[in-house]
Write a structure and sequence with these properties.
The complex is a heterodimer of chains A (135) and B (339).
Chain A: E1 19-24, E2 30-35, H1 39-64, H2 70-77, H3 82-89, H4 93-99, H5 102-106, H6 110-120, H7 124-129
Antiparallel strand pairs in A: 1-2
Chain B: E1 2-4, H1 15-26, H2 34-40, E2 47-54, E3 57-61, H3 68-76, E4 81-84, H4 89-101, E5 106-110, E6 129-137, E7 140-144, E8 152-155, H5 156-163, E9 175-178, H6 186-205, H7 213-248, H8 258-271, H9 275-302, H10 309-334
Antiparallel strand pairs in B: 1-6, 2-3, 4-9, 5-6, 5-9, 6-7, 7-8
Helix pairs in contact in B: 1-2, 2-8, 6-10, 7-9, 7-10, 8-9, 9-10
Classes of the chains: A mainly alpha (135), B alpha+beta (339).
Chain lengths: 135, 339
């Protein structure tokens, strides 16, 4: 990549900091150059976020259809999977998987619910009702 | 309480190269640039793990496991490394404070999901990030994150949260620094360069598993051709977006580290005046350019501008072409007659 070809498409990161790239100068020697972003990367990130939005919506539907507990919704919203959620709550993965079932979820104690609510940074009531307060 | 170590923030392309370079500079080892850190740490890599998922996509890595580059560079230069992991958050913070009190800026492995100074769009559960803590002011730790242009700070709670991020490659509070007091000679750097090149060539050329190195790039290229049928357009596009992010996002310097490696070979020439190094450097530039061309093709697919089987074949063929180019380049590196 030549120095003058280093892309400068403003990305969400570019608003906060430029990134260092390595590129060649006119004599072919490598130098560092700053980049504000690259539209190929921006759209890759957008693609990932579009998918996140779809997954959250699908999770919400599943909860409303009583096919999953609200934990699924918050898990997707937090970009987590069972392994990560187990890590943050301290539960085993098999326990988290059980708690994702609506019938099991209904029987969870306040103490158990609090562990999830703390991780998702919501109240227990919000956890049960999928209530989200956008910050 | 306020204590700020005498420490110079340097911005780098890649976090671990940057941490390595800055921590070494801080103990008086000045000659290690970012490209030298990558090259001596034999950090050019490729692996595709089809059976593992991160963020619901395949794991494709262009770098070795976090921590390896730092360790390898220090080993090559005969610098002892202090590295610790913790199960207790309290002990992790106590040790951090102790290091700072003793005057050592330290490297920390962290997750980026809760990293407040990153833009929200970048905050996925990715745990292989590295930053340096170089002091504290009241409840805040002073942070030099090599991918940022400027220094930042984290409250003790924020720092604890990212040091104890969960999920794949959970950092477990991992902390490390090089022991001060070593004198590094140009000859050690020279030997480290040669060693790093030989090791990197072996890793990329001689993998016994088909998903690593040159074979891994070729394997991925062939797999991509079948993604359209196997996964459907939508999922195939997501997988390609993931590939592009691993390859180009913060830290790789562009083209999946290939440009930094090309820069490394130019710097290596200063230590070893072997003409081939400059020629092979051009091959890596070419490879970096090809990686980026392939990213443009991938973007065509995930932006729904392209989508025929022919488009996927073109995408796969780029990787096959890259594999062949890098096979040539690493074979040439392997065959260098060192003086």
């Amino acid at each position: 990549m030549k120095k003058e070809d280093v892309p400068q498409d403003l990305s969400s990161l570019g608003k906060l900091t430029n990134e260092v790239c390595y590129a060649t100068d006119s004599s072919g020697k490598y130098v560092t150059a700053l980049s504000r972003g690259w539209d190929v990367k921006i759209s890759a990130l957008d693609t990932a976020w579009d998918e996140v939005t779809i997954r959250i919506e699908a999770a919400r539907q599943k909860v409303l259809n009583n096919e999953a507990s609200p934990l699924l919704f918050f898990m997707e919203k937090g970009l987590m999977d069972v392994q990560i959620l187990a890590g943050y709550t301290g539960y085993w993965q098999w326990q988290v998987k059980r708690h994702l079932k609506p019938n099991v979820f209904k029987k969870l104690t306040a103490k158990q619910l609090k562990r999830y609510a703390d991780v998702f940074n919501v109240t227990i009531d919000d956890l049960k009702t999928m209530n989200v307060h956008e910050a | 309480m306020c204590m700020k170590l005498n420490f110079e923030h340097l911005q780098s392309a890649h976090c671990e190269n940057g941490v390595t370079r800055s921590l070494l500079k801080n103990i008086g080892v000045n000659g290690i640039t970012e490209p030298l850190a990558l090259g001596i740490g034999y950090g050019l890599f490729f692996v595709y793990l089809p059976f593992l998922k991160i963020n619901n996509g395949p794991v494709i890595a262009f770098r070795p496991m976090p921590g390896l580059i730092f360790n390898r560079v220090c080993k090559a230069l005969d610098i002892p490394v202090i590295r610790k992991k913790f199960s207790s958050k309290e002990k992790a913070e106590a040790f951090l404070n102790q290091c700072l009190d003793e005057g050592h800026p330290v490297g920390c492995q962290v997750g980026v999901y809760y990293l407040p100074y990153f833009p929200r769009e970048y905050r996925f559960h990715f745990n292989a990030h590295n930053l340096i803590v170089y002091g504290r002011e009241g409840d805040n730790y002073l942070v030099s994150d090599p991918v940022m242009e400027y220094t930042t700070s984290l409250s003790s709670y924020e720092l604890e949260r990212v040091r104890f991020a969960k999920g794949t490659l959970a950092p477990n509070g991992q902390i490390y620094y090089p022991k001060p007091g070593s004198i590094v000679t140009p000859d050690q750097i020279k030997q480290g360069i040669k060693h790093g090149i030989q090791k990197n060539a072996n890793i990329m050329l001689q993998s016994v598993v088909p998903i690593v190195g040159i074979k891994g790039i070729r394997y991925t290229g062939n797999r991509i051709k079948s993604w359209r049928d196997k996964l459907g357009l939508k999922k195939a596009g997501l997988y390609l977006a993931q590939l592009v992010r691993m390859q180009e996002e913060i830290g790789t310097g562009g083209g999946g580290f290939r440009y930094i490696y090309a820069a490394f070979l130019q710097e290596a020439y200063e230590y070893h005046p072997v003409d081939e190094l400059m020629e092979i450097s051009k091959l890596f530039t070419e490879s970096g350019d090809l990686w980026r061309t392939s990213a443009v093709q991938a973007a065509g697919i995930y932006k729904n501008r392209l989508g025929s089987q022919e488009d996927f074949n073109t995408m796969g063929d780029y990787l096959l072409e890259i594999a062949e180019l890098e096979r040539k380049a690493f074979t040439a590196l392997k065959n260098i007659k060192w003086q």
